[in-house]
Amino acid sequence: MSSLAGETTADGPVVARSCRVADVSYRAFLAARDAPGFHWADPDGLEVSGAGTAAAVTASGEDRFATVRAWADDLFDAVDYDGPEAARPRLLGGFAFFDDHEPGAPWTGFPAAQFVLPECQLASVGDETWLTVARAGEDATAAGVERALADAREAVESLPAMRPSGPRPGVSGTTPTPGRDEWTTGVRDALARIEAGDLRKVVLATALRADLDAPVDPRDLLERLRQRYSQCFRFLVAPTESAAFLGATPERLATLRDGRVETVALAGSVGRGDSPAEDARLAERLRESDKLRHEQGVVVDTIARRLEELGEVAVGDRGVRTLSNIQHLETPISAAVGEETHVLDVVATLHPTPAVNGLPPAAALDTIRETEAFERGWYAAPVGWFDADGDGTFGVGLRSAVASGDSVTLFAGNGIVADSDPDDEWDEVQLKYRPVLDELE
Ligand SMILES: C=C(O[C@H]1C=CC=C(C(=O)O)[C@@H]1O)C(=O)O
């Protein structure tokens, strides 16, 4: 597949200035500014919002990770910024699951890759909040950026520290794609491919369109997700005023910081019980099930093998990750990598992991394309941020949805291996809709 040179706005140099501001509602910040808008919050305590475009890139094709990296390296080749680390300029964005993604509804406005250096960034770490204004290109001057920062600061300081999220919009109806019969046929076909030896695992996904009683503000939806899923990575990408991709994913795809990569192999699911004893019983079932251990084990092996291309790998102990409504098997994996490694190199090496694709990768991708009758878009794909040093964090865009006015399309999938039962898999997929659906109903 050919690689398209990305469409870009301004190249470097980047001029950025920052100042500390009082804590302010990121929803009020984003609501007061035009698209594009971004938000990223991780369980480690970093929250970043970005609005407006100082510079941007889009890319598609097999080389899209490299295209974005090459553009970012040029952009950040000359950076005039010496403020605190928390407030440093970041590129925010993500990728579609497939490299040849063509944005059609509900993904209008979401290219196969898009990153933006926001004109205005609000970043909180611990109890400090920083405002950063960035400009890029030959017309970017320190004096101009300092004036813009003073204006932005005045605007931000008039915003409230809290903004109530308002009532849930209510759901008038839902439409699944595929329906249950078609799902059963798809899973049986996948099982036949596994039986024939063409496939070991495939993650089949589903989409659920929820029609709402009232339009939803995606920023409010994200805020409600924060309350129940603070231990997940919460993200919002709104390339235009009319659509936003958002979610609360438990899955870190990669963090690169100071030459160290952190990731996880997360797969295999059971529900939560009604009591601590029931929870523990279900967690035990997760730990003891050969089928689920195999489903997650292939993810561990694949991630570890792929990371060995980049450096020395350490695989931690397998544990159970307990979320509000579901539990998964999880193994932490880390790697010591060379100084020249960029987080996008790690993302390109890992995506898609068998937690969202399968094995062998090409056969799993073919099965997904032939089975799923909807567009994955940015679902199950890398979403996050990186900085001028190539450090950053990406999550896998799970437990996610595209919100557009009074309709929201949710996505969820499940790993199919030998012994999978189409009915059990259907029930597990429904659990994965709950994070977003609960906050709409
Ligand atoms: C594909 C999804 O979950 C992945 C991550 C954890 C558990 C999974 C599973 O049980 O199959 C999936 O691999 C999803 O949430 O849509």
UniProtKB/TrEMBL annotation:
Lineage: Archaea, Methanobacteriati, Methanobacteriota, Stenosarchaea group, Halobacteria
Cross-referenced Pfam families: Chorismate_bind
Spans annotated as Disordered: 159-183
Protein's name in the database: isochorismate synthase
Domain of life: Archaea
InterPro entries attached to this UniProt entry: ADC_synthase, Chorismate_C, IsoChor_synthase
EC number(s) per entry: 5.4.4.2
GO MF assignments: isochorismate synthase activity
Family per similarity comment: Belongs to the isochorismate synthase family.
Segments passing through the bilayer: none
